[in-house]
Amino acid sequence: MVYQVRVTPTLATMAGAQMLSGVITTMLYGVALLMILRYFSSHSRNDPLWTKALIASLGVLATLQAAFTNHQIYDYFVINNNDEAARDVMPISMPGMIACTFLTTSDEDLIDSMPPGYGKVALAIVQLGAGLVQVALMNISKTQTVMFERFVDQDILTVYLNGASAAACDILITLSLVTILRSTEVNATRRTKALLEKLVVYAINRGIVTSVFALASIFLYDFASGTLYYLIPFSSNTHVYVISVVSMLTAREGLRENMDRSFHFSDLMMNTSTQRTVDNETPQSSDVLG
């Protein structure tokens, strides 16, 4: 596999793209953190312990990824601003950011693959494996020059495998969720069907957004090769995954509360009392005949 440089590397396409990636990643991290805090404060009381542990772990990985991303920018623009040789050395935050990104996306896909399906689980494992190989290559290379000269083919392969498997896994998960929700509607009441339709919309939107980000990273890595613009969707996808998971949980809680209010026991008691009043006011046949 030959890596063809399509765009001449410049300060704007390399350092500028990296800085833009850091800004967008940090903004998305702020949104993800607020949603996680909101989940634990208002929507987690009925969830099992493993769900809370999962959200907490995603929050930790997202925090580390944002910290690593900003460390790279500080290392490049401040610490080694006037040292070209030092800029070529990969800081520990670079493989750290890559590892956090892959762990977040692949772990979330593994969780979403439940109930298990061999295709979805296999794609999630391929996604994680490709990420771990890329992290290992970075640790072996030590510098970006060595990485490009010796391991460029392997690096390209891991990028394609990860992006393609992530998008395919998201699509399969979305199709499975929609199929399950659609089959549940068969014997559901009209109000329940309306709630299920909302869940279907959430599932489709979630699958579209995460798949687009995964495919965009591959597209920019290939057709904008020689730049670092692919880092924008790649690093941002961590927080997009976290936001999608937490938004599904908070939306589910709101729908559950709506369902509980719809069939609350007090409403049944009120309806029964009203019916009794109507029955008492209706003349009986004996009264009419009498």
Automatic annotation (TrEMBL):
Pfam families documented for this protein: DUF6534 (PF20152)
Domain DUF6534: start-end pairs: 166-253
Keywords of the record: Membrane, Transmembrane, Transmembrane helix
Domain of life: Eukaryota
The keyword Transmembrane helix appears for this protein: yes
Keyword Cell cycle: no
TM regions (residue ranges): 15-37, 49-69, 157-178, 199-221, 227-251
PANTHER family: CHROMOSOME 1, WHOLE GENOME SHOTGUN SEQUENCE, DUF6534 DOMAIN-CONTAINING PROTEIN
Protein name (record): DUF6534 domain-containing protein
Source species: Ephemerocybe angulata
Lineage, uppermost ranks: Eukaryota, Fungi, Dikarya, Basidiomycota, Agaricomycotina
